[in-house]
Amino acid sequence: MSYRRKIVAGNWKMNKTATEAKDFVADLLNALGQYSDNDVETIICPPFVCLPACFEVLEGSSTIIMGAQDMSAQKGGAYTGEISAEMLKDLYCRYVILGHSERRQYNGETDALVNEKTKIAFANKIRPIVCVGETLEQREAGKTKSAVTSQVNNSLADLSPEQWSEMVIAYEPIWAIGTGKTATATQAQEVHELIRGLIAKNADDSIADKARILYGGSVKPDNSKELMSQDDIDGALVGGASLQVDSFVSIVEAACEDFE
Ligand code: PEP
User: Rounded mean pLDDT of 40-62?
Assistant: First the structure.
């Protein structure tokens, strides 16, 4: 198994004003000082309007990397309310979350749209973190594997081997997001192994071996270590627990410990 640098990414969703974000990021940076470990890439994905304030605090530091929560599939022009990849790049975003289940559910985002956005992100040298995951109904009907397979194959259709190697996939069972219900480490590992196999089919074995696959869904300090110690779980996409310095830092710490 290849060495894979862990990722802990915080998805703030629609939380924090720019003023709150600035104070929060300063506190987070301070608290993370001791964990600025080369084995873990720590990413925050604040709301768009908080990005400049966060960058002001983070400029010159490599401890925290900035990402966005979404992005337009259009390059620019008459698309009221949209934010382009170029705008995110200009604000030093190196990652973008795409196809989060909340965007799929509330904004009708399809695999085809996620695929377009993924290609635009790559064209702008922003790494996509593409989210996939089954609903409770699909899990209970024994359709987890087919649902995740179809999301991976369609959201990530027609990528080059190089793009596959830079891609980050987040497995987020929808029934576990914001509900306090976490997939067991075994349930999560099973799907992560499936996803790694899909990467091998779409790209090749060596790319799959290096690809990073994150787990998301009620990740908290007390379950993060067990989840991230699974063979195919290379980090976490964290919602609620990324909004408090203490809990987010504990999850980063758990990711660092996995290498000890
Ligand atoms: C998420 O929104 O990506 C997420 C995993 O949220 P939570 O950790 O709150 O379940």
Answer: 95
